TrEMBL record:
Domain of life: Bacteria
Name of the protein: Xylose transport system permease protein XylH
Classification via PANTHER family: ABC TRANSPORTER PERMEASE PROTEIN YPHD-RELATED-RELATED, XYLOSE TRANSPORT SYSTEM PERMEASE PROTEIN XYLH
Record gene name: gguB
Pfam family for this entry, one: BPD_transp_2
Organism: Cellulomonas wangsupingiae
Keywords: Cell inner membrane, Cell membrane, Membrane, Sugar transport, Transmembrane, Transmembrane helix, Transport
Membrane topology, record value: Multi-pass membrane protein
UniProt entry tagged with the keyword NAD: no
Tagged with keyword Cell membrane: yes
Chain ranges passing through the membrane: 20-39, 51-67, 96-113, 118-136, 169-191, 212-229, 241-260, 281-303
């Protein structure tokens, strides 16, 4: 009975995470059925380029939400950091890397400012970042003098619009370099999953059967290689996809395997217990907001590069997309639950829905309504899961 109970817990404890992957697949299949161009190489590349900054923001946002806080200012910070880069690179002719560095520094300073008020003064993150949303938007208008700046051009433009390819094109117009990179990623994923499985077995934890384990790896590898093949047929590997891959791998390790990441989950799961256990709550909270500011700076660089300019209205509603991505991807409204991979899936669902509805010519008003309903259902599912767990 113990083994059966353990297996049942293994299957049900991550039902939200598993369900969101299934939902993502179903949404992709739906739009591919409604529009034959949805899974074309050009459109898949377009999805990566257009929504990369939301995925970057979602990484930091899920950490803030796991902590039990929120950040409503990230859209304004994206605008401000892009504005600073624009003034330096476009107006003053500074090298592209100076603009990037300045944007990141501004993002870190913003994170330190908000982290101080939340962690050390004790003001709720909702209030601090709501004030920040207004404050940094106003600063953006001041920095840009209420006008847009363009174009960046050159290397800065290539950050979000360029492609990493070495010209290894086969006779059928497929970039071999892109396929090699995706193949390496698949092998790395398989090795990581195998090591994780062996570790769980060593600690006598319940794992799925070998056929199921192998089938899961094969299925994921097939999807990843198919996606890589589609990109290889178009223009190769987007630079921004490499940046995203690095961030996802790094923050997956930080959140799941580092002391800092475990402390974030401990604080969000039970603040009092974390304090009694010796967790430095204020320090962890402060650096979580600093990290959010840094990632908002990265997103600001990517967005301004993609738009090839800096606009006072940039980043409008980005905070809501990032928050929605985290909640749709499995984060809990009460903190302590959520993963980077889940947030990425949630962000991809938002991106796929937006892109699919745009291809179908759905009015913007209807698109907003659909996104709102999806977010509401995701949170309702979280509440339902908690009540079911409490009833056991």
């Amino acid at each position: 009975m113990t083994a059966i109970a353990g297996f049942r817990d293994m299957v049900t404890r991550n039902v939200r995470q598993s369900g969101i992957f299934i939902a993502f697949v179903l949404i992709v299949l739906l739009f591919s059925f409604l529009n034959s161009n949805f899974l074309s190489p050009g459109n898949l590349t377009n999805i990566v380029l257009q929504y990369s900054y939301i995925l970057i923001l979602a990484i930091g946002m899920v950490m803030v939400i796991v902590l039990g806080q929120i950040d409503l200012s990230v859209g304004s910070v994206v605008a401000l950091t892009g504005a600073v880069a624009g003034v330096l690179v476009i107006r003053h002719g500074a090298p592209w890397w100076v603009g990037v560095l300045a944007a990141l520094v501004v993002g870190v300073l913003v994170g330190m400012w908000q982290g101080f008020w939340v962690a050390y003064v004790g003001i709720p993150g909702f209030i601090v970042t709501l004030a920040g949303m207004l404050l940094f938007r106003g600063m953006t208008y001041r920095v840009l003098d209420n006008v847009s700046l363009s174009p960046f051009g050159g290397t800065y433009y290539d950050i979000a619009n360029g492609f990493s390819t070495n010209g290894w094109f086969g006779g059928y117009g497929v970039d071999v370099f892109t396929l090699v990179i995706f193949a390496i990623a698949v092998v790395g994923y398989a090795v990581s999953q195998w090591r994780t499985r062996r570790g769980r077995i060593a600690y006598q934890q319940v794992v799925e059967s070998m056929p199921i384990f192998v089938g899961k790896i094969v299925a994921i590898a097939a999807v990843v290689m198919w996606f890589g093949y589609q990109l290889a047929q178009y223009r190769g590997l987007p630079n921004v996809l490499i940046l995203l891959a690095v961030l996802i791998m790094a923050y997956s390790v930080i959140t799941q395997r580092s002391v800092f990441g475990r402390h974030i989950y401990a604080i969000g799961g039970n603040l009092n217990a974390a304090q009694l256990s010796g967790v430095k709550v204020r320090v962890v909270t402060f650096w979580t907001y600093v990290n959010m500011g840094l990632l908002a700076g990265v997103a600001g660089v990517v967005y301004s590069s993609r738009m090839n300019g800096a606009q006072p209205s940039a980043g409008n509603m980005f905070e809501l997309d990032a928050i929605a991505a985290a909640f749709i991807g499995g984060a809990s409204t009460t903190g302590g639950v959520g993963r980077v991979t889940g947030a990425m899936t949630g962000a991809l669902i938002m991106a796929v829905m937006s892109n699919g509805m745009q291809l179908m010519g759905v009015p913007q008003s209807i698109q907003q309504m659909v996104k709102g309903l999806v977010l509401l259902l995701a949170v309702a599912f979280d509440v339902w899961n908690k009540r079911r767990a409490d009833a056991r």
